[in-house]
């Protein structure tokens, strides 16, 4: 789960990371009022969306008076901000963060990520901040400092000092850099984050180290341990199909194609999507109903898939190991009776009790297109989607 910059800053500041004074606003007037409360004579108005690259896309504006703040806000509120991280559809701006402008002397990049190959938290830092990490690694790869943290002991001060030295931090600022690194690491590990990124982390004209940007991502599977983090979820920033699925305990990723997939297990979901593409189609989603595919779950999954207007065929691909094909087949039949499904449905079942499962589908009298292998199922789904009904009917006759 992603959170907003202002939320990440509030969390990190609780762990000793210095951030500029700032406040959230939901309207242009409130933003101007907030700026007066913050004081000073220059402010930055920042669109709060779950994506980086806002600066270049017009989502971060420097303002010198009330009028400029209101104008900046009017240009942002209600708009979709399209950055290189949002995809072409962009993300809606419903909140802005107003911050006192900080005089920047130097910008660093600082990131904490889960490094799966070393199975450790990895700190990635560079003295070439301000650019995205992808640009830094393409243009100044030698400037990147990497260090992994031993989980049994956590980040040690000597290690944080080494990172500060490797970045060329001035002697007088090393202890502030160490405090920043230690704070980010503690926030990362105590809150089960999967990513903390500060870009830029700046040295100011008056020798302070301040986080001007902050991004945090959390492990969804650990959110139950951190209700105060789970509360920060902002559904306006998520794909509505994915939010609805998450609310129903299903794992769903919306895609751009036309073939809806209902599958059990993430690996099978990937294989199903690959096979659909191999057969010349495009999946509309990745939907994993998980292990215990009860009829209720299957019905929920159908409802969700059918709510996507792009779906022109649904492929159900279940491999029953712990599950049983007859239960799943009952689920499919029940779902098709409950949910209005006006597109072709292709079902491929394999594993435990597959014959009983097939019988239930056949006896249901519902227009279900059955397939024995995944390739067959994908081809039938693609055939049906292409509205090549003659092909679909011919195949149904063969089954
Ligand atoms: P993004 O990474 O989404 O573009 P940032 O928060 O990094 O957004 O802001 C973009 C740029 O705006 C920063 O690299 C920094 O140069 C400048 N900036 C952001 N916040 C401040 C601030 N409080 N004071 C001065 N400059 C800022
Ligand atoms: Mg940034």
UniProtKB/TrEMBL annotation:
Its EC number is 6.2.1.5. Its cofactor is Mg(2+). GO terms for biological process: succinyl-CoA metabolic process; tricarboxylic acid cycle. Mg(2+) binds at residues 199, 213. GO terms for molecular function: ATP binding; magnesium ion binding; malate-CoA ligase activity; succinate-CoA ligase (ADP-forming) activity; succinate-CoA ligase (GDP-forming) activity. Keywords: ATP-binding, Ligase, Magnesium, Metal-binding, Nucleotide-binding, Tricarboxylic acid cycle. This is Succinate--CoA ligase [ADP-forming] subunit beta. It comes from Pseudaestuariivita atlantica.
């Amino acid at each position: 789960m992603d959170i907003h910059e202002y939320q990440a800053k509030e969390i990190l500041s609780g762990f000793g990371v210095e951030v500029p004074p700032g406040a959230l606003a939901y309207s242009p007037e409130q933003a101007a009022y907030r700026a007066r409360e913050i004081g000073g004579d220059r402010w930055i108005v920042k669109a709060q969306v779950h994506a980086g690259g806002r600066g270049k896309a017009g989502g971060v504006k420097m303002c010198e008076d009330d009028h400029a703040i209101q104008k900046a806000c009017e240009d942002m509120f209600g708009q979709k901000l399209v950055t290189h991280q949002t995809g072409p559809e962009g993300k809606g701006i419903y909140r802005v963060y107003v911050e006192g402008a900080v005089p920047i002397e130097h910008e660093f990049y600082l990131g904490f990520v889960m490094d799966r190959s070393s199975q450790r938290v990895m700190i990635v830092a560079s003295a070439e901040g301000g650019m995205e990490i992808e640009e830094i690694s393409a243009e100044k790869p030698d400037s990147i400092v990497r260090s992994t943290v031993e989980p049994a002991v956590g980040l040690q001060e000597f290690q944080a000092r080494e990172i500060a030295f490797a970045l060329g931090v001035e002697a007088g600022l090393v202890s502030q850099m160490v405090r920043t690194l230690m704070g980010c690491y503690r926030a990362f590990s105590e809150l089960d984050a999967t990513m903390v990124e500060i870009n830029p982390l700046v040295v100011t004209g008056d020798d302070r180290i301040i986080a001007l940007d902050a991004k945090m991502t959390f492990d969804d599977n650990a959110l139950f341990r951190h209700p105060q983090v789970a509360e920060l979820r902002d559904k306006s920033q998520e794909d509505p199909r994915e939010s609805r699925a998450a609310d129903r305990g299903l794992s769903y990723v919306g895609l751009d194609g036309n073939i809806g997939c209902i599958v059990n297990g993430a690996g099978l979901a990937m294989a199903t999507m690959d096979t659909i593409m191999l057969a010349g189609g495009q999946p509309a989603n990745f939907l994993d109903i998980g292990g215990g595919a009860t009829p209720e779950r299957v019905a929920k999954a159908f409802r969700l898939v059918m709510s996507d207007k792009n779906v022109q065929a649904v492929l159900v691909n279940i491999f029953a190991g712990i599950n049983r094909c007859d239960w799943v087949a009952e689920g499919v039949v029940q779902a098709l009776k409950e949910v209005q499904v006006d597109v072709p449905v292709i079902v491929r079942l394999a594993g435990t009790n597959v014959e009983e499962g097939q019988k239930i589908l056949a006896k249901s009298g519902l227009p279900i297109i059955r397939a024995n292998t995944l390739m067959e199922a994908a081809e039938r789904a693609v055939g049906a989607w292409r509205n090549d009904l003659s092909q679909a009917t011919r195949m149904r006759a063969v089954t």
